[in-house]
Structures are given as structure tokens and as C-alpha cells.
Amino acid sequence: MTNTISVSGLRKRYGDVQAVDGVSFEVAEGEFFGILGPNGAGKTTTLEIVEGLREADEGEVELLGLKPWPRNAKLLPRIGVQLQATSFFERLTAREQLRTFGSLYGVPARKADEMLETVGLTEKADERVEKLSGGQAQRLSIACALVHDPELVFLDEPTAALDPQARRNLWDVLRAINTEGRTIVLTTHYMDEAEVLCDRVAIMDRGQILRLGPPAALVRGLDAPTRISVASGTLDAEDARRLTGVDEVTDDGVSLVVETRDPSSVVAALSAKDALDGVQIRGATLEDVFLELTGREYRA
């Protein structure tokens, strides 16, 4: 499969801070690729270098077979970029905004208007951009990145600060875009988003890629227990600890949670004791992988 992006040995320093430290990865044509990491991990700097917005100190980048830096005019019609913060032209409607962006690439007004339907903004076409909700503004931002029909799309935290309904709606838009054959590179803080959308993810911290692969494969590679919870009072905590295969038991007065690496035995034992009231079974997730690699301490 052809690689749309090839990155090798990328480094970028700002004073004493090594923002990107030897990053290498490839993105295949048509792939939905995610870059995950805590604040300050180097995600945005990496993306800006790959997009050709920033010069690397060291390393090689190829985008669609071309070098993005120095700024390569041949690449501009072939890529779409949605930044963390998008500034729209004031006092323009959504339709006017999109037509203006499209005109920079010679896109006819009719085709620009069709993009409003793609992102579900047809009914808001004549609404001024400052009156759009957060989710609607994000969809318009993505429409502006797609209006010239790019082969490759970069999305930097596109669902940040959106409510759950707006996030899920935007996921549907992004799936549809990827299904059309476009390659998408996404940065996000939301692990569930990466699990749902991405074919592969790279987990970054302190300027380096710590782990790279399909989300399901990364989760399977984590030695983490399965958590089985039942309603508190269904079973005494001490009785639960005596069950075969139990690693740890906690009871917060709402749920009794059993951690185990032998879930089938524990579920069978709970069933035998008629203690499956409100049972929930949760395996490891990408969030567990992320925390295992990057730590649990808060970073501003």
C-alpha cells in the first residue's frame, strides 16, 4: 500500500525544550491515523512540521511524495488543514465563508455549497458564523479544509470543547470523509474517539512516540485485569475476595468491583451465588494503555 506520509527522525527544539525528539512514522493511503498524547507531548508541533507550517531542526518528511518544507505550493491544493483554533471572516454567513475559502482554490460556488450538505450545515447556510454553535462552527471549519477536495486532511483536536452529542455527530462526518478514500491524520485527547475512528494510533509523550499500532492491538498487548462490577450488597466483599481468580475487590457502597485476569471463572462463581445483579464487565481500553505509558499525573 502506498504511503501518503513518511516521517523519519523528526526533531524540533524551542530553547531548552525538546518538543519533538526523533519521531518516525508512516501513514498509508486512505488510512485514518491518530496522534495521541498529553498536553505538551509534541503532537501539534509534529503535525505543523508535517503540514509544512514549521521547519524541523532535523529529520525527513515526505507528503504525497513531495517535501512540504520549504513551503511547497504544489502540495497546497492536495491537502486540507483544520487547526486547533480557526478564525472565520467576520459578518459572513456559513455559505459566504465556504465560498470565500473555495475561491482561493478556484472552486465554483455550486461545489462549495455542496460541501455544506456534506457536513450537515445546509439549514445553517445563511446563518452568520458568529451565531453558529460550537459543533456547527467545527463542522464549518472542517468543510473549509475539504472544500477543494484534498487527498489528505489534517485535523488538530477537531472535537475539543464540544458536548457529547456534537462530538458524535462530528464522528459521523469524519467517518464519511474517510470512507470516500481520503487519508486523515487526527490529533485528539479523547481515547474513545481514537478507538472508534482510527485504524492506527501513535501515542506520544515528551516529544517521542512510545507506542504505535491499531487501537485493539495496543489494548490486547496491555497486561490489565478485567473489571466486573455488581450492585453493592449483592455479595459481601470478603466473600468476593475468596472467589477463584480474583486479584482485587473494592466496594464503594454503590458497586462492588472485582478485578481479575480470569473473568469467565469469576462470572461463573458470581452466577452460582446468584450475585449478578447489575453486572457490568469492562476490559482494558485505549485509555488504560495511554495512562500506562504516559502516567497519571495531571499536566496543565
From TrEMBL:
InterPro entries, sorted: AAA+_ATPase, ABC_transporter-like_ATP-bd, ABC_transporter-like_CS, ABC_transporter_ATP-binding, P-loop_NTPase
Domain ABC transporter: 5-231
Domain of life: Bacteria
UniProt subcellular location: Cell membrane
CDD domains according to UniProt: ABC_DR_subfamily_A (cd03230)
Keyword rRNA-binding applies: no
Keywords linked to the UniProt accession: Antibiotic resistance, ATP-binding, Cell membrane, Membrane, Nucleotide-binding, Translocase, Transport
Primary residence: membrane
GO MF terms, alphabetically ordered: ATP binding; ATP hydrolysis activity
Gene Ontology biological process: response to antibiotic
Membrane topology qualifier: Peripheral membrane protein
GO cellular component term, pick one: plasma membrane
PANTHER family associated with the record: ABC TRANSPORTER ATP-BINDING PROTEIN, ABC TRANSPORTER ATP-BINDING PROTEIN NATA
Protein family membership: Belongs to the ABC transporter superfamily.
Protein name: ABC transporter ATP-binding protein
Organism for this UniProt entry: Actinomadura logoneensis
